[in-house]
From TrEMBL:
Domain Glycosyltransferase 2-like, first and last residues per copy: 5-190
Keywords tagged on the record: Transferase
Superkingdom of the organism of origin: Bacteria
Gene3D superfamilies reported in the protein's UniProt record: Spore Coat Polysaccharide Biosynthesis Protein SpsA, Chain A
Record's protein name: GT2 family glycosyltransferase
A molecular function (GO) term: transferase activity
Pfam families: Glycos_transf_2 (PF00535)
The UniProt record lists the keyword Transferase: yes
PANTHER family xref list: RHAMNOSYLTRANSFERASE WBBL (PTHR43179)
Length: 396
């Protein structure tokens, strides 16, 4: 039996998937693993693009988009492995991350699932890396703002388990589906992802079922980067509908026996949040439509660190696209801390671009996590494809 199956679900983000697969090539170099990309009926040529560049990857080209859970289940059913890793397409992993996860799972037979420390494109640790089950009271503390007001409280801060240390393994309740390793024997016992969830919520449901089956869920401090994260489609009507519908499905499935006086306020809060989100979207759309002089966003400075050859390519790309680029010839031996070497505070938007032939993914993640700043985000440049990928743009 294969040690590990990695599953990535793609929908029109072929360049992010390419970046993710390149990081997996390094992370899986000494692991008996198979990789599946399940394409949810993309219309950007994803299947052909990825098949040509990654012949070792198993690609399932769905004829319809039936959702995230359905797509993952297709690959799980086709695969045979001791462990399954669900991985978002807009991520990349440190070279040591997957081996660290496997070693931990092997050493802890009661661990049914494990997640990792996720970084956003600005280097901030994602709160979704560790979460508690959204019970009625935990959900109330989150929606009422008590969770944010008292993050170190074991009572009020349980939604994000924000009182736990970031640098040590810890038992948690909910693992993010952006990077979720699951023991195969657990899936055989509890079943696959619940396909009632189109997108969002299936990871919470699966985590809950793992715990109910008597297994443990763990957070591990190894790092990945989740490029889009909070910025993905949250300003769309579709996101609001799918996200809050998932919350209702979870609540009805796992807390349907909750007393009426407890369940009613929670359901009301879910509907209120959804309505407030929709109203906010409409308000912003109206403001944009009526604005005679829309506010211009400041253009970022691209600060590049890489080989001399890559610098020349970036400068050429900058001239073609009209970008403000500052190049530094460096690698992780000559400048191991990259832009964090001088501990500068950046007051204007800055994209720190790293040449992936000069810096390892693990080093890049370490640099971004040293001193995360509001105006700083990450970009990666691949000299082979001449692609510059940032959290918002694919520049080529």
């Amino acid at each position: 039996m294969t040690k590990l199956t990695v599953i990535i679900v793609n929908y029109n983000v072929k360049f992010y998937v390419e970046q993710c697969l390149l990081s997996l090539r390094k992370a899986l170099a000494h692991i008996d693993a198979q990789v599946y990309v399940v394409d949810n009926h993309s219309h950007d040529g994803s299947v052909e693009y990825l098949q040509e560049r990654f012949p070792e990857v198993n690609i399932i080209a769905c004829m319809h988009n039936n959702g995230f859970a359905y797509a993952n289940n297709l690959a799980i059913k086709q695969s045979q492995s001791q462990y399954v890793l669900l991985l978002n397409p807009d991520t990349f992993v440190a070279e040591n991350a997957i081996q660290t996860m496997l070693d931990f799972m092997d050493e802890h037979p009661l661990a049914g699932g494990a997640g990792v420390q996720m970084l956003g494109a600005d280097g901030q640790k994602a709160m979704e890396s560790r979460r508690g089950l959204p019970s009625p009271m935990v959900s109330f503390y989150k929606m009422s703002g008590l969770c944010a007001r008292f993050p170190q409280s074991k009572r009020f801060g349980k939604y994000y388990l924000s009182y736990l240390p970031w640098d040590a393994p810890a038992r948690i309740e909910v693992i993010s589906g952006a990077c979720m390793m699951i023991r195969r024997e657990v899936l055989d016992k509890i079943g696959l992802l619940d396909e009632d969830y189109f997108m969002y919520g299936e990871d919470i449901d699966l985590s809950c079922r793992i715990l109910k089956a008597g297994y443990e869920n763990w957070y591990l401090p190894c790092q990945i980067l989740h490029y889009k994260g909070e910025s993905t489609h949250k300003s769309s009507f579709r996101y609001v509908h799918v996200f809050y519908q998932a919350m209702l499905i979870f609540f009805r499935k796992h807390y349907r026996h909750t007393r009426f006086w407890v369940s009613l306020p929670i359901k009301a809060a879910i509907y209120f949040k959804a309505c407030a989100a929709l109203l906010s979207i409409q308000t912003r759309a109206l403001q944009r439509a009526l604005a005679l002089r829309p506010r211009r966003r400041p253009q970022p400075v691209y600060r590049f660190f890489g080989s001399e050859c890559a610098c020349l390519a970036i400068e050429k790309l900058a001239r073609h696209k009209g970008l403000d680029v500052q190049c530094t010839v460096a690698n992780e031996q000559t400048l191991p801390l990259g832009h964090a070497t001088e501990h500068n505070v950046f007051t204007q938007p800055s994209v720190m671009v790293y040449d992936i032939s000069s810096y390892s993914y693990q080093t890049i993640l370490h640099i971004m996590s040293i001193n995360p700043q509001r105006h700083v985000s990450l970009g990666l440049f691949n000299p082979d494809t001449q692609l510059l990928i940032t959290t918002n743009d694919i520049i080529k």
